[in-house]
Design a protein that fits this description.
Blueprint lengths: L1 H12 L10 H15 L8 E5 L2 E8 H11 L5 H13 L3 E3 L13 E4 L14 H13 L2 H4 L3 H13 L4 H16 L3 H18 L13 H4 L8 E4 L2 E4 L19 H16 L5 H14 L15 H4 L3 H7 L5 H6 L4 H5 L2 H13 L3 H14 L3 H16 L11 H11 L8 H21 L1 H49 L1
Antiparallel strand pairs: 1-2, 2-4, 3-4, 5-6
Length: about 500
């Protein structure tokens, strides 16, 4: 009666998403069998087993379960009954009390029925934070009886790294739950701890085992309402609802048209072709980028001369724009090709290198297209035709090498020229220079000699600057000493 009342309350509150899960019919059939097994009349004999100095409450043997299934489901095949029992154990409806592998064996091993609160029909969708709270709580309890397995200890360490910033909050939650559990009676606490462990054995199985509750993609595609309720271990949450109100009923679903299906197929193909990257790699790339540019940020590394944003002294910017680049500026060209192209001196050095390789037309075309994007609109059409005649027209004086697709797109755009008529051709030339010419430029003798020469020049300049600072400080100190006696005499005369 209590279990039926709990289930009715769950259904009334919206926790049981009957119409959303494609496996719900399977869950219902299994739960009917489990209720019959737990019934006082005609069910499996649930008893308390006495062990050495301890009692093991509310358990049954694997042989009892198999025999009951054969008797009440009208099957004479023991293997069929064992298979059905294993499926029910894998779904977490009953579990071995001394093993993390959820399987049924036809022997004297002890099993315990799961609390209906943890049944799969309640649409559990536990998060990693819930799992972290559970594992953290296990470390605070009886270590002899609830010691973490190797894979659980590895999971705890991994989760601690992932949730480093909010680990204190997770630890506080685990500590609060552990205090509540200690107030329960010993036998009740044993049962609840084993049921909670079995719940996580279903949703975070042992390595080598499969989470049987993971939905098949074909079944998932038949779900009609995408706004279904997700349930966390610590409460209900629904996508798109923050007030906790019950989920809205599914709207009337119309059969999609052929065009809509084609659009969905195109969208799925585009998603499959997207380049994915792990968050850890993105974080490593961001850290490497930040470390690389730290010396070039005047707020992080004080420059010499002073930071123009803080002192209103523009000397730093004047040094950055002069024709003789510093060693730090030349070194920055090696970060990426964009650093070369946005530096006037770097662009000039790169052009000289391309001229030595007889491919300077690539950079000239790229620069011409960049200038075209900044021209007034009245001059764009004439300048676009000039660029076409100089670089792309058959027999042009500075013909560039384009693939057929980019050439056709560009020829079509030039019929009605705009600022971005050469966008495809410019991107093709940019990638050609980036993957081919730029790498050779960094390895060239011209760049390496310039880098070494600017390093020596900056070293000599630093020595001169240090000597000038020293002489200036000495002069200021001597000047201060000269003024002190005169000021002392004036004070005595007064």
């Amino acid at each position: 009666m209590a279990e039926s009342a709990a289930e009715a309350a769950a259904v009334a509150s919206g926790f049981v998403c009957v119409q959303h899960s494609p496996n719900m019919s399977t869950y219902r059939k299994m739960e009917q069998i489990v209720r019959r097994m737990q019934a006082e009349e005609g069910g499996v004999a649930i008893r308390t087993v006495k062990s050495f100095l301890t009692k093991i409450p509310s358990v049954v043997t694997g042989t009892d379960i198999v025999q009951w299934l054969m008797k009440n489901l009208n099957t004479q095949d023991q293997a069929e009954a064992l298979h059905l029992g294993t499926q029910m154990a894998a779904h977490g409806y009953f579990f071995p009390i001394s093993d993390h592998v959820l399987a049924l064996k036809d022997d004297g091993a002890l099993y315990r029925f799961q609390n209906p609160y943890f049944w799969p029909s309640n649409c559990w969708d536990p998060e990693n934070t819930d799992y972290a709270v559970y594992l953290c709580k296990r470390t605070m309890q009886n270590k002899a009886r609830l010691e973490l397995a190797d894979y659980e200890a590895e999971s705890l360490a991994r989760l601690q790294r992932a949730f480093d910033r909010k680990w204190e909050f997770i630890f506080m939650q685990a500590e609060a739950q552990a205090r509540v559990d200690r107030k329960r009676e010993k036998l009740e606490r044993k049962v609840m701890e084993s049921q909670e462990r079995a719940f996580w054995d279903v949703h975070r199985p042992v390595p080598g085992c499969v989470n049987i509750l993971e939905l098949d993609i074909k079944k998932s595609s038949r779900k009609i309402n995408s706004g279904r309720a997700h349930k966390s271990v610590y409460g209900l949450k629904e996508e798109g609802r923050a007030d906790g109100s019950p989920p809205s009923p599914p709207p009337d679903v119309k059969r999609p048209s052929v065009e809509e299906l084609k659009r969905q197929v195109r969208f799925m193909h585009a998603q499959m072709e997207r380049h994915g990257m792990k968050t850890s790699k993105v974080a490593d790339s961001l850290i490497a980028y930040s470390e690389q540019y730290t010396d070039y940020d005047p707020f992080l590394t004080p420059p010499d001369p002073s930071n123009p944003w803080a002192s209103d002294d523009a000397s730093f910017w004047e040094l950055e724009t002069r024709k003789e680049p510093s060693h730090q500026r030349v070194l920055r060209w090696g970060f990426c090709m964009d650093e070369v192209l946005k530096d006037s001196v770097g662009q000039e050095q790169f052009l000289r290198f391309l001229q030595s390789e007889f491919s300077s037309e690539n950079l000239q075309f790229w620069v011409a297209v960049q200038e075209l994007k900044r021209l007034p609109l009245r001059k764009v059409a004439d300048r676009a035709r000039e660029i076409w005649q100089e670089f792309l027209e058959p027999g042009a004086p500075n013909t560039i090498n384009l693939d057929s697709h980019s050439f056709e797109r560009t020829a079509h755009n030039v019929r009605e020229p705009g600022r971005f008529a050469f966008q495809d051709a410019q991107e093709h030339i940019y990638m050609l220079m980036k993957t081919d010419s730029y790498a050779r430029f960094l390895r060239s003798n011209n760049y390496q000699e310039l880098l070494a020469a600017r390093k020596m020049s900056d070293h000599d300049q630093d020595r001169r600057t240090s000597f000038e600072k020293f002489t200036r400080n000495v002069e200021l100190s001597l000047r201060g000493r000269r003024h002190r006696p005169s000021s002392a005499r004036a004070a005595s005369s007064n």
